[in-house]
Design a protein that fits this description.
By secondary structure, the chain is of the alpha+beta class. The protein has 8 helices and 21 strands. The strands form 2 sheets. The chain has an 18-stranded antiparallel beta barrel. A two-stranded antiparallel sheet has the order 1-2.
């Protein structure tokens, strides 16, 4: 324990030192401080008049000696609407980079006033995408280290296996360190190798560290074409909102030894065909194979339709004939500041029943509906979101007979289950008590949350999740509990973020029925996330001398 803590302390000091060093040498963008009122000859007024003339904006600055920030913001919004229209109709190349940089400078200086205008909030995502700096020139080599260090503590909860345990508390230091190297010899060839060390230091526990290859793959596509790409090797799979397939990023990740073929027969349509096996030790203790396809059709920005089918044999203890087929649809739509998402899923296949001594036919369903709305409060961007998630259950699963009608999605830290991760997926919850283990089968989860950006670097969010079981043993309550999550995020730089969270789970009557206790769960953490890297740009071929 002492040696492990010492190693982590050295690693932590090294990461902070590297991060501070990068901050010290980083070039900072000049801050354009515009007073509440400026003279008509101020640089921002000149810029606005010239740009409004070029793009024929529908509004212009008032012809008077002094102009307010509000008046400038209103004019800038009219300019942005014209530029966005040109950008969407003619493509990004239609707007000179120099003009976008001038507009971005004005947008940054007048963001507070812009946020108070409804038209800005409705187009904010498009504006940010349009004004974003172009990606760095193609690099040949990239060397880096990413991951997190997280100190966490919990009461009435076992962090090791994420189970409810009244009168038990513990704390630990969790680390995830991923050194990586990219090699891009050409625009159509990519080699990527990434190791991972994951574990935690905790009193009175054995060494829980794992060090292994996390990703190692080759990706190739046809030169100067996007319609066919092949990727082979150890890799992550992440699709949609990660409701079914994601990277388990809050813990030790999830990877496959697999191949993927990506086909783009048309610009809005992407089809992925994938096949592989769960790769230990970062496989969530699952063994088996994964095959299937995932198709995405993008209708417009924020609006699209996905369809997928997966065959998954991944289990901790596999029996002959067991397999899970997942059939899903996902739709997203964006109407200005309002975003909607709907994802229904059906599952079939076979699962082993200990009670019956053979396989049962799977017939389960689930899904989720999410909605979010971007608004403003005192000139600061806010986001309100709500969600409903459902996973089918059965009385047979609650009594230990068969889980064939119980919906199962991977234990992937999806947003609907909350930060504590007491509920790994939508199949339900098992609680150990004095009279044995008791299972609540299938979940309904109601989520409501709100967040605010105090600055571009600081965000605060508060979320509530109410959990209700679909089926339980006779005499037990279906009420599982209410979880509240409070998270403060500080973006120190583009490479480093500090996240502080406190979560409280108000135990429901099911917990009391199962354990004869109603102790609530407290969980708090402080996490440093980082991605530190250095790139070596690809050398351009020498230009022939035309003389």
């Amino acid at each position: 324990m002492k040696n492990g803590a010492l190693k982590l302390a050295v690693i932590l000091v090294g990461i902070i030192s590297l991060g501070l060093g990068r901050l010290a040498v980083a070039e900072t963008e000049p801050v354009c401080d515009i007073p509440e009122q400026v003279q008509a000859e101020h640089w921002c007024c000149k810029e606005l008049r010239e740009l409004c003339t070029i793009y024929r904006a529908t509004a212009s600055l008032p012809d008077k000696p002094l102009v307010s920030r509000r008046e400038m913001a209103t004019t800038l919004l009219a300019l942005l609407e014209k530029v966005i229209d040109k950008y969407e109709k003619e493509g990004p190349e239609a707007i000179p980079r120099a003009d976008l940089e001038r507009i971005a400078r004005l947008e940054a200086a007048l963001r507070k006033e812009l946020a108070e205008l409804p038209g800005y909030l409705q187009r904010r995502e498009t504006i940010e995408k349009m004004l974003a700096k172009p990606e760095e020139p193609p690099f040949e080599y990239k060397l880096g280290l990413n991951g997190f260090l997280r100190g966490e503590g919990a009461g009435n909860f076992r962090l090791k296996d994420f189970t409810y345990n009244p009168n038990y508390s513990q704390g630990r230091l969790v680390y995830r360190l991923k050194p990586y190297v990219y090699w891009h010899p050409t625009d159509y060839l990519d080699f990527h190798v990434e190791g991972q060390g994951y574990g935690y230091a905790q009193a009175h526990d054995v060494d829980n560290s794992h060090y292994s290859l996390y990703q190692g793959y080759l990706e190739a596509r046809l030169p100067d074409r996007d319609w066919l790409a092949v990727k082979g090797g150890r890799q992550e799979f992440s699709y949609g909102s990660t409701f079914i397939l994601g990277t388990n990023a809050f813990r030790d990740g999830l990877v496959f030894d697999a191949g993927r073929v990506r086909i783009k027969p048309a610009a809005p349509l992407t089809i992925d065909l994938l096949a592989g096996s769960y790769a230990s030790p970062f496989s969530m203790n699952l063994k088996g194979n994964l095959f299937g396809g995932y198709a995405t059709y993008a209708i417009s920005e924020g609006t699209g339709v996905d369809a997928y089918m997966l065959r998954d044999t991944g289990t901790m203890f596999h029996h002959p004939g067991e397999e899970l087929f997942v059939w899903g649809l996902r739709g997203t739509a964006k109407f200005g500041p309002l975003a909607l998402e709907l994802e229904p899923v059906y599952e079939s296949g076979s699962v082993f029943s200990d009670a019956k001594g053979g396989n049962d036919h799977i017939n389960a369903y689930g899904g989720h509906f999410d909605a979010s709305y971007e608004g403003a409060l005192a000139g600061r961007t806010t986001k309100t979101f709500l969600s409903y998630a459902y996973g089918s259950g059965s009385k047979d699963a609650a009594t230990g007979v068969s889980t064939a009608r119980e919906f199962r999605n991977p234990d992937n830290n999806i947003s609907q289950i909350g930060d504590i991760a007491l509920f790994g997926d939508l199949s339900g919850l098992t609680v150990n008590g004095p009279t044995g283990s008791h299972h609540a089968s299938g979940l309904q989860i109601y989520t409501l949350g709100w967040g605010i950006d105090f600055t571009k670097e600081v965000n605060l969010s508060a979320t509530g999740h109410y959990f209700l079981a679909n089926q339980v043993e006779d005499g037990f309550s279906r009420e599982l509990g209410l979880e509240t999550d409070f998270t403060l995020t500080y973006k120190i730089s583009d490479d480093i973020s500090l996240i502080v969270g406190y979560d409280h789970f108000f135990a429901g009557r099911f917990m009391r029925d199962a354990t004869t206790s109603r102790g609530d769960i407290d969980y708090g953490y402080c996490m440093l996330q980082f991605d530190l890297s250095h790139s070596w740009l690809r050398k351009k071929p020498a230009t022939p001398d035309k003389r």
